[in-house]
Amino acid sequence: MQIIKKFTNILYWLLIIMLIIVAGTAALSSFDISGGTKLYSVQSGSMEPEIKTGSVVLSQPQTIYFRGDIITFKAEKDRTVKNPRYTTTHRVHELQEAEGKLMFITKGDANDSPDGTPITQDLILGKVLVAVPYLGYLVSFAKTEAGFILLIIVPATLIIYSELVSIKNEAKKLIEERKKRKLTAKEKVVVAFGETEMAVGESISSLFDPGGKK
């Protein structure tokens, strides 16, 4: 029995950790963290082995970018959009000046040749500060309907259910103890919540089993 309880506790905390990581990363990849710093998913292997396919990178805007910096910039199909859905993460291969503007020639580490179109600094979203391998797969899946249900809704429901069961069990113990001693204010709140939860549970059960015991 102790082994089962220990396994359940481990599973419970793993669910909490997974929910925090996936939900947190998915949220942070949709909004700026601070001053334009943001998480982006890498969906290709053009930067391997430095950045694995499916990684999540944290990119932060810089005043100046140098040759050798790994940067995230707007993909060609989204260059007119303020908050692009598609981005590219490549290394600054070379710097050039054209018509008085500084141009950045980028290249994926795994690619044989530089990218076809140089970019200007206004298209750069930030310099990569850190990359977390494979987390991007989970984040991308979590943003789909099925992924949101499996990775967010289901774990959250299990965690809430587990907490409600714990409160209910604690309330049962306190209800028994109420007959023997005076409860503290905090214990009274737990009992009241537990009694309400049990009453709701019985009402729901009666709806699904109208022919049950009277």
TrEMBL record:
InterPro entries documented for this protein: LexA/Signal_pep-like_sf, Peptidase_S26, Peptidase_S26B
Gene3D superfamilies: Umud Fragment, subunit A (2.10.109.10)
GO biological-process terms attached to the record: signal peptide processing
Location relative to the cell: Membrane
Keywords of the record: Membrane, Transmembrane, Transmembrane helix
An MF annotation (GO) of this entry: signal peptidase activity
Top-level EC class: hydrolase
EC number, as in UniProt: 3.4.21.89
GO cellular component: membrane
Annotated TM spans: 12-31, 146-165
Name of the protein in question: Signal peptidase I
